[in-house]
Design goal:
By secondary structure, this protein is of the alpha/beta class. The protein contains eight helices and seven strands; from the N terminus they run αβαβαββαβαααβαβ. It has a seven-stranded mixed β-sheet with strand order 3-2-1-4-5-7-6, sandwiched between helices. The longest helix is centred in the N-terminal third of the chain and has 17 residues. The chain starts with a helix and ends with a strand.
Length: about 260
Amino acid sequence: MKNEEQLKSEVKDKYSAIVTDSKSRCGCGGKTEVVFEIDYSRIDGYDPEADYGLGCGIPTDGAGIKPGDTVLDLGSGAGNDVFVARRVVGETGKVIGVDMTEAMVEKAKANNARAGYSNVEFRLCEIENMPVDSDSVDVVLSNCVLNLVPDKARAFSEIMRVLKPGGHFSISDIVTTAALPQRLRDVAALYAGCVSGALVKEEYVSIIEKWGFMDVVVKNERPITVPDGNLDGVSGDDLDALRSSGSAIISITITGRKPSA
């Protein structure tokens, strides 16, 4: 079984590759394969240069972001959801993106320099240990990233910490309908492909509720398929085991809020 540092290293390598190599297949989506038909083009603030097709939803939709809010995007990549949120918060708000992959952060900073936003910031860090002040964020966003975090309980504890009392989150993510066999969870390509790192939906919700979040609601649930082409390096036996495991892979958007007191 791979340890957390090995998994993180493999994910960093794959997400770095998609910035530097246009032919690289990485993450849940990617421009070489159509996995999620997520159309950002209709959304104000959308920047095609910040979109690598790695999301599994549009967490800004229905996120309740208001002008003047402080928004934090977890696993912000090249800045796709950050720039959408920036158009909503306006000049009086602030948007922070955090990502553990240096190449993605550098690309996001370059995109922001081109856009000229003074109230957007990108920070290099892990979600489980963020350099973000406690009780400082109105809305937390994330798009198909927490499934890649080995310690999801720690991630949600950080979300609870940084949110203001009464603040809320809107997260699009990948979950499963049943547990995957352990040997599939040990396959790096399945992990970086957002498959083996995904929790069973009920377990995912349970972790959130354990940390005291209120009004937890699962929205926009739909089944998805990860094409074999996105799983380079996975053996035929492992693919067969995945297809026959009885575990459906689904995309959800889930919301919840931190108690006011």
